[in-house]
# Entry
Amino acid sequence: MNLDKFIKDFEEAVEDIEPGSLSAATEFKQLEAWDSLAILTVTDVIDMEYGVLLSKQCLEGMKTLEELYQFVLSKQ
Amino acid sequence: MAKCSFNQVQLGGVVTCVPSLVKCIDDEVDLFGGSEKQIMRLKKTIGLDRRRVVEPGTTAVDLCEAAARRLLSGAELKTDSIDAMIFVTQTPDHTQPCNAAVLHGRLDLPKSCAAFDVNLGCSGYVYGLWLAHMMVSAGGCGRVLLLAGDTVSQIVNPRDRAVAPLFGDGGSATLIQLSGVESNSWFSLETDGKGFDKLIVPAGGQRAPSSAATRAEVTDEVGNIRSAENLFMDGAEIFNFSIVEEPKAVKDLLEYAGLDLDSVDYFVFHQANRYILSNIAKRLKIDLAKVPMQTVGSYGNQSSASIPSALCGELGELLRGATSQRLLLSGFGVGLSWASVLLDVAQLSVCEIIESVSSASKA
# Structure
C-alpha cells in the first residue's frame, strides 16, 4: 500500500470531496464532510481495501491523513 | 457457539402487520437540524427513505394481534390448537405482565397454552424460532405461535437523527408446528454482552429509575437531542459489529450444516438499513438478488419484526408455493446479540403483509 492510493481511497469514501484536494497533512477531522456518516464509509473502505477495522477509540488521537495511514500500516 | 439442529419442525405461516401512517425523511429536514445536504447524504448512503410508524396509543400487542388473527384465519386454525405462544419485544405494553399474557387473553386462547415474553430486539425473531423449534421437538407443543413486534418509533427522540429516521414499527405472527415429513433446520445463537451500552435505553428501568433528570433532553456534541429514556445508538460501533460478526456467523452456520453459500436460495437478514445489508452481502460475496433489502426502505428498521416483514413483503408468493426454498435468516443488534437459522420453507398457508387500522379511524 502507498500513501497516495490511501488518500485517493479516503477521498472516494467521503462524499463531496474533490479528487486530489487532500494531502498527507490534511487534518481530516476538520473537513466539513467529516461526520458520523463519513466515519462509516471510511471505516468500510479501509476494512475492505486494507483489512483493518477502525474503532472510535483509535481515531481519537489522530489528526492528519498521514497519521491515519501509518496507523493502518501498523495494524496490517 | 450455541448450535443445534432439528428435523421434524416446520413453519406453517407468517403474517406481518404494519401501521398505515407513512413517514418520509424528505419531509423531516427541519426536524433533523436543517442541513438538507446532510439528510440527502444519509438518504443516499444509508438508503433511508420511508418508514411506517404507529400513532401514539397503538402498541406491539395491537400490531401482533392483527397479524395473529390473520394468521389463524389463513391457516384455518382454531385458537385451542395453539399450545404455546412466545412474544418477542422490547417495547412491551407493561413492565408486568408480559405481552404474551395480554395477547393470550385478547385472542381467547385456552388456559392450557403456555405464554411468555423474550426481551430481545433485532436478533429476537431467530431466537424465538429457536425456542419454538425446541418446544415442538421436546413434545407437548404441536403448534407454537411466535409473535415478534416492536414500536421503536415511540422510544426514539424525534430530533435524534442517529436513530429517528431509521426505525419503523411492525408486529408479526408466525406459526411453528410439528412436521409430518422430514424438515431440517440448523440454528446458531451468540451474544456479546460487553457491547450492552452500544444500543440502549439507559434509563427508565430499575438501574436508573425514571425521574425529571432522566426525562430531560440533552443535546450531544453533534447536535442530536435525546433524553436518557430515549433509545441511544452508537452507529459506528453497531456498523463495525455487524460487518465483523454477521459474515462470520453465516459462514459458521453453513459449515455446521455441511452446506455452502450456493445451496441457499435467499439470505434474509435483519433489515437494519440498505448500507449494512449490502456490506454484509459484499463481504460474503453473495449475489444481491438473493438478499431481500427492499423492506427497510418501505417500512424502516422494524427491530424484531424486520425478518418476518421481509419474508412476507418480498418472498410471500414464493413461500406460499410448492417448491421448497432454503432460507438463511439472520438477525443482529441490541444485546449485543445475533442469531441465524438455515431452514427449508414451502407451502405456507399464509405469508403476507397487512396494514393496521389507525386508532384515529377506529375511534
Notes: The mean pLDDT of chain A is 88. Chain A has one domain: 3-15+25-75. The first helix of chain A runs from residue 3 to 13. Helices of chain A lie at 3-13, 36-50, 56-60, 65-75.
